[in-house]
What does this fold into?
Amino acid sequence: MERRVLAATVLAFLVLYAYNTFLVPPAPKKAAEPPAAAAATQQPSSSSTSASDTTTPTLPAVQTLTSEPNEREIVVETSTVEVVFTNRGARALHWRLKNYHDDQGKPVDLVPTALPPNQPSPFALRVDDPQISSRLESAIYRIEGDSSGRVDATTSSATLAF
It folds into this structure.
């Protein structure tokens, strides 16, 4: 019986090896380092390099473009939820469930209202660069698909685009 277990183990490894060798596509290779980056990583040959040569250049600040003059709220209503979006940062301010009520009889709101500033809000746009994230969160977006601040999706589907 031990021979069968050993044979099954060896066959399982052979199947995994064959699968990885013949069926799985190879991982993409890293792009070659550009000549400027390669030169920056090499040791400087002379001692006359200044401190400005070793620092990375900073890009000029880009002006934030707004497509609408003011911040506004858009209410999207379906048969089960009422969602309030803002065009500043394209975030959800409220996500109220119509069929569930709290102790005061109000619909349950799934979006917390008292978040600390270092915590992301629901639907907040975040990227790896904190400066870009703050620009995305403070930008005023143009909204398409609403009529005077409301979107009625109770009877048919509707689209809201930021």
About this structure: Residues 73-152 form one domain. Residues 7 and 18 are 16 Å apart (CA to CA).
